[in-house]
Amino acid sequence: MSLISLRAVRKTYHLGVTEVHALKGIDLDIEQGEFTAVWGPSGSGKSSLLNLIGMLDAPSSGQVLLNDKPINDLSDDQRAEMRNAKIGFVFQNFNLVPVLSAQENVALPLQIRGMAAAEAEQKAAAALAEVGLAEHAQRRPDLLSGGQRQRVAIARALVTQPEIVIADEPTANLDAENSRLVIELMRDMNQRHKVTFLFSTHDPRLIDKVGRLIKLADGQLVNGEQA
Amino acid sequence: MISLKLGLRNIWKNRRRSFTTLLAVAIGFTAINLFAGYIHSVYTGIKKIAIHGEALGHLTVVKRGYYTEGKLHPEKYMLGKADLDKAMALIRAEPGVRLVSPRLSLAGLVSNGRASTIFLAEGEIPEDSVKIRTGSVRTPPSMLNRDLPNAGLLSSDLANLLGVKKGQTVVLMSSTLEGQTNALDLEVQDTFNTGNAATNDKFALLPFAYAQSLVDTQGASRITVLLDPAHDDANAMRQRLLQKLNAAGLDVEIKTWLDLSLFYKQVKNMFDLIFLFLFTIVFIVVLMSITNTMTTSVLERTREIGTLRSLGMKRRKIMELFAVEGAMLGLFGCVAGLLMTWFGTWLVRIANIRYIPPSSSDEVPLWVNYVPEMQFGSLLLLAIVAMLAALLPARRAANTEIVDALGHV
Fold first, then answer.
1. Which one of A170, A212, B70, B333 counts the least CB within 10 Å of its CB?
2. Distance in angstroms (rounded) separating the CA atoms of residues B83 and B249
3. Which residues contact B388 (CB under 8 A, 6 or more apart)?
4. B227-242: buried (b, 16+ CB within 10 Å) or exposed (e) per residue?
5. B137 to each of B58, B133, B365, how far by Cα in Å?
């Protein structure tokens, strides 16, 4: 049983009278514990693919299955609960809440789940320590560097112990050194916690660091995608 | 909890914008509460004028039909001596009643020997008259004197019209109940201002026994009842007394001071309308200020909304976030407004402003009462209005597609 399965998934966007076919019939399986990159040029459909797997968007046709269960027909609330319980997100622009400290940001998904603030903050502190930011726990995002913010985002994605972390271009706003550090941190978390990582990138320097590479071009998988 | 934390911190983060919104709410709150405090003081004042100044008392007991037919057939609608004594004894026995006094209304001509003019008069028991008429905003400078049975008070413009002064004598002419003309000398004990330009040139206050002699009766046209301050629910007392008097075989009706004071009702209706107008304006200002602020906030935080949704926050929780923030803005604005209202009230009081109200001949102080129930009621109401004002932008925030929100620049 695959963790994620996509069956003939298509995604079409309507821009006025123009139809943009972002994904053109994708069949894909992602297994538990993989460290996988989706690689392709801009406009190849990487973000669309990640949005569908992360339940942030719905396919125009085809099926997305999580642990063999279709997620297309879930209600909005059920999808929200599933995202909170099973999926962690890391974004290109870090997307930390500016009025909350690093620790409060990391505690946020736990509090959304309904966990008491004290317990959530305790777990958040431990998660921040694991990404090497214990001493910055009380700082607001605007007082952290780009690399530190992305590590906070990784701690936030992992604090709920999700089955999969989805990262859309996590290194796009980082310099080469921070990009390397962030990818190494994600790889380290993948190996220590056996959590699946699926991230998109168009940076060729990161390709040799992934366990599996999925190549996308013009909304379709490119043959020989297995690394 | 998370809603409160995010709301508070976002209000503080955007403190300049928040301050402008809070100020609009606070000024609106202050305006309606200062005006409410002012009209409350006006209502209190004109209630006192009605009960004590117009000497309506809290309740007036008359023979049934007196107010519709009494002027045409006064002899049929007078309370005879037996009924009067019986009713007064029953009313006096009721707990909460402070004073029961018979009254006689009459009209006729008053003459100085050379010229005559019409008069309207009230016959009152001197010692009761003092009790009833004391406590008004305008207390007559002089009262009837029980030791001067043939002396009365003339309104100042009437005295001026007749050219008579304190100590001089006039002649009062009126019809008896049987329709005969009767006349009696009256010593002008003093003059006074009725406070009402329409009555100040024709009103006279007479001793009750003198008025009875003039119309040749042992009865009274009505009974005035004054209640203890602790029991001044006139409606409740009216019900109790009516049951009691009817059960005793007395065919009477009872009016409260509110039923009889047309002036009070007119003033109250006018101020209530002005208040409604003012409140509507404040309501719209608060609604628009909060909606504008929250719309801007939603726009600025669209990506944050997308992030929260991707972390698993449900749509209704997103709505709650913004609704709570809007309610907090409203609440803080109202609390600031409450402090401004207290300060404004104090300021008006120490300024000692005085003015002459319409149809009045006396100056009265401009006074603002503290009305806690109004202040806390409007605080609650405006906080709810603020929350409702935030709901529309909050709904838009909640309904934004996650992918669109995350891609918002």
1. A212
2. 9
3. B287
4. beeeebebeebbeebb
5. 16, 10, 10
Distance CA B90, CA B97 (A): 11
Residue with tokens 């809007």, as numbered in its chain: B326
Per CB-CB distance under 8 Å, the chain A contacts of B11 are none
- Which residue type sits at B247? A
* DSSP per residue, B14-50: THHHHHHHHHHHHHHHHHHHHHHHHHHHHHHHHHHII
Can you give the pTM of this predicted structure? 0.76
* pLDDT score of A82 more than 70: yes
Which residues of chain B are within 8 Å of residue A89 when distances are taken between CB atoms? 307, 310-311
Residues 6+ apart with CB under 8 A from B270: none
Closest CA to B318 of B221, B394, B236, B204: B394
Tokens at residue A209, please?
């660091």
Helix (H) or strand (E) holding B394: helix B372-399
Cα A214 from Cα A28, distance rounded (Å) = 9
| Helix or strand run (H / E) with residue B247 | helix B234-247
Q: Amino acid identity of A112?
A: I
What is the residue whose two structure tokens read 């994620």? Answer: A4
Q: List CB contacts (< 8 A) between B304 and chain A.
A: 95, 97-98
Please spell the DSSP secondary structure of B325-351, one letter per residue: HHHHHHHHHHHHHHHHHHHHHHHHHHH
Structure tokens at A190: 């993948």
Q: What is the DSSP string of B127-186?
A: HHHHHHHTTSSS--S----TT-TTEEEEEHHHHHHHT--TT-EEEEEEE-TTS-EEEEEE
* Span B350-364, average pLDDT: 78
> Which two structure tokens, joined as six digits, stand for B167?
């100590």
Mean pLDDT confidence for B214-226: 94
Task: Give this complex's ipTM.
Answer: 0.93
CB contacts < 8 A (A, B):
68
CA–CA gap between residue B156 and residue A196 (Å, rounded): 100
β partners of residue B120: B107, B203
